[in-house]
Amino acid sequence: MSAVGNGPIAALQDLKKARILVTNDDGYQAPGLEILEEIASQLSDDVWLVAPEVEQSGAGHSLTLRRPLRVRQRGPRHFSVDGTPTDCVLLAVSKILGDRRPDLVLSGVNRGGNMGEDVTYSGTVAAAMEATFLGVPAIALSQEYDASDRIDWGAAADFAPGIIRRLAAGPWHRDLLYSINFPPCPAEKVKGVRAVAQGRRSGHIAVIEGRDPKGRPYMWIGDYTDESSDQPGTDLEAVAHHAVAVTPLHLDLTHAPSLEPLDTLLR
Ligand code: MN
């Protein structure tokens, strides 16, 4: 059932029979999770949901090690865990789903894009990374928005099932996961689906200083100072032009071109 080698994955050839695990980082009650469950239900009849009890955005690939985790069953094949997205996937695959592991893990749909450097902070992407470590093919899904108080999930809802079907039918490297970012526009305004690289923003994350109601100083991690990127062929550029961005990610962080010069340097 796991991803071995570079070829198509047998278990994904017939998605209708695949066991799909749905998780996220926005928490068990997030609207994007409901949308993702609906997307997964269009693909298979065997959909399981294991998600964090409370929001874990920015949790990255963190594990809960210093306290026990509690699992609560919320309904048939529905569970919440008082931990991180990584905890959820680990517990789901190892224990909660029982004898049959998932054939595919879907994480999201995140409230907001996970592009460029977000990939390293994102709990949504980390859940997909954890699945990949466990040998389960995984896809992270994120919906970018213009105004956070009225996020339009239409692009994700309309485009995700078709894209997931196409990804499942293709070759799947053992160390590979996909991250899909949907643009902040109505589905009918989407300008295609592009395969793109992870980009990098022009700005950096701002730290905001202020004083609390008792006059004590605080620092609060804010947003990027500049969200824009002019790098063509990246997730940031594609989504800025209202295309769906599909990025193949892998877990080996080695900077391969540096290996040889480093070896020379260390001799
Ligand atoms: Mn999130």
Write a brief caption for the model:
By secondary structure, this protein is an alpha/beta fold.
Task: Say how many strands there are.
Answer: 11
- What is the residue-mean pLDDT, rounded to a whole number? 94
CATH architecture: 3-Layer(aba) Sandwich
**Estimated share of beta-strand residues:** 25-35%
Count of the separate structural domains:
1
User: Roughly how many Å is the radius of gyration?
Assistant: 19 Å
Tell me what you see in this structure.
By secondary structure, this protein is an alpha/beta fold. It is built from 8 helices and 11 strands. The protein is globular, with a radius of gyration of 19 Å. Helix 2 packs across helix 6. The strands form 2 sheets. The chain has a 9-stranded mixed sheet, sandwiched between helices. A two-stranded antiparallel ribbon has the order 9-10. The protein has a single domain, classed as Stationary-phase Survival Protein Sure Homolog, Chain: A. The structure holds manganese (II) ion. The site of manganese (II) ion has 6 residues, from strand 5.
How would the blueprint of this fold be written?
Blueprint: H1 10-13, E1 19-23, H2 31-43, E2 46-52, E3 71-75, E4 78-81, H3 85-96, E5 104-111, H4 118-121, H5 123-133, E6 138-143, H6 154-169, E7 176-182, E8 193-195, E9 205-211, E10 217-224, H7 235-240, E11 244-250, H8 259-266
Helix pairs in contact: 2-6, 3-5
Bound molecules: manganese (II) ion.
Manganese (II) ion is lined by residues 25-26, 57, 110-111, 124.
